[in-house]
Structures are given as C-alpha cells and as structure tokens.
Write a structure and sequence with these properties.
Layout (H helix, E strand, L loop, with lengths): L1 H10 L3 E6 L6 E8 L2 E9 L10 H13 L7 E5 L4 E5 L12 H8 L1
Antiparallel strand pairs: 1-2, 2-3, 3-5, 4-5
Length: 110
Amino acid sequence: MKLVQDWLETNIGPVVHLERQPRWRPVWFADCERDGEVLELCVRGDRTDFPGIYPLEHEMLLQSLLHDRGIPVPAVHGWIDEPRAFVTDRVAGQPDFAGCTDAQRDAVMD
C-alpha cells in the first residue's frame, strides 16, 4: 500500500484516505487533494489468481479510449509500475441490487 500511496502523492496530490478493498483482486479506494478539492479515486491492480486473456494495460487503454470518446466510464489518471495498477476516478454505487426495481436490475445487466 505504501507504493500506491507514494505514486498518488507524487502524481495526484496528498492522500487524505487510502484503503484496500477486501476482495481477490487488488483494488484500493483513495481520496487525494488537488487544487483545493478531494478527488475520489480507484486503483485497480493486476489479477493475482490467474493470468487473464488481456494484460492490465489493455484494460486501462480500453477504458481510456472509451472515456476519451464520450462513453460514460471513469477517467484514467495513470499507470503504476509497482504494484502493477492503474488509477481512475471512483464512481459511486453499491455492491448489490437492493432497492432496485426489476427493470433497473435488467438494464444494468444488459
């Protein structure tokens, strides 16, 4: 986590909060200050359970290209060499469909 914090402080700004998401794939949620505002960020790490079909760089590039073309995905802020990860805006949400209608759930799944 120290390497992630160091990268964020060097490339984004002071880290206000940093926590590892408890899951199989390394992901960190970070809040960093820049120009008087707090940026809510997500650091997506490389899979550790098995190698994927596409490398993590491919995932980052695809997300960046989609964002640059107006597709509503989080902006990419950069690449971290160690641990292998990339930094994006964090999007609010919830981990389940509690409180959603069947139509809303179906739209998300589509």
